[in-house]
Specification:
Blueprint lengths: L2 E3 L3 H4 L4 H10 L7 E5 L4 E9 L6 E9 L8 E5 L5 H14 L3 E6 L10 H14 L7 E2 L3 E2 H4 L7 E5 L8 E2 H4 L6 E5 L7 H9 L3 E4 L7 H18 L6
Parallel strand pairs: 1-2, 5-6, 5-11, 6-7, 6-8, 9-11, 9-12, 10-12
Antiparallel strand pairs: 2-3, 3-4
Helix pairs in contact: 3-4, 3-8
Length: 240
């Protein structure tokens, strides 16, 4: 099944140029053909192609179906962008496929990369959303200083994965409560500084370990997110 992404489908009744080209030029769809369109906000539309134009294909909406995310809480991952951007792009792709509400690139004292192109990451997330047959696009925030991240989602369970010995760390699997809003914080290749960890813990975060092995930044972020989903699946909570 191929999904097309049109965030303004209700108001425009058109596919964006890239999706129009894919439908008409690549897939050779014709006027009258049926296609599935998602808006990135949780709705799937069954449409009929009204005008097979390769740049602005027009559609007629036949029906719409809500497709909520399969988890009820908000899951956010804040992660310091990796030195090599292809690894960060891979991470955004995989977290979108796996399922996440918000991705927060975080700027730390030891960050190897101090600027990112959010637009590029957003395009990767759109492709991963369509490929994984989701209808909700995760929010990708701009590069955000650590001090601002530690003020986010007050009231949620908030974890910081840390490798250093300066503080006592709990096991994420034992600390995580399924079904609760969650923010997971992952540091850069050189880890957080002790001063950053001290400030983060004072902000209400719980220091956790992801096991005995040393993990790359992108591996740690994906490991933590997958652990949340596995624990949620093992202990399902009723949807609101």
């Amino acid at each position: 099944m191929i999904q097309f992404f049109a965030p303004d489908i209700i108001s425009t009744l058109q596919l964006p140029e890239s999706d129009s080209r894919h439908a008409v030029r690549v897939l050779r769809m014709n006027t009258g053909d049926t296609l599935q369109v998602i808006d990135g906000r949780g709705t799937v539309y069954t449409c009929r192609l009204a005008d097979a134009h390769p740049k602005h294909a027009a559609v007629e909406i036949i029906s719409s179906t809500p497709q909520p995310l399969p988890w009820s809480q908000r899951l956010a991952v804040a992660v310091a962008p990796t030195k090599h951007m292809d690894r960060m792009e891979w991470l955004v792709e995989k977290m979108t496929e796996m399922g996440v509400n918000t991705i927060i690139p975080v700027l730390t004292d030891r960050s190897e990369r101090r600027e990112i192109k959010v637009e590029r990451l957003a395009k990767i997330a759109v492709s991963a959303m369509k490929q994984s047959l989701k209808a909700t696009l995760p929010e990708i925030m701009p590069l955000t200083p650590l001090a601002d991240v530690t003020a986010m989602m007050d009231g949620a369970q908030r974890f910081v994965a840390y490798c250093g010995p300066e503080c006592e760390r709990a096991d994420l699997a034992r600390s995580y409560t399924p079904g609760r809003d969650t923010l997971i914080l992952i540091g850069p290749e050189g880890d957080f500084t002790p001063a950053e960890i001290e400030r983060t813990l004072r902000s209400g975060f719980t220091a956790v370990t992801l096991g005995d092995n040393r993990l790359r930044t992108e591996t740690a972020a994906l490991y933590a997110l997958s652990a949340c989903h596995i624990l949620d699946a093992a202990n399902p909570s009723p949807r609101p």
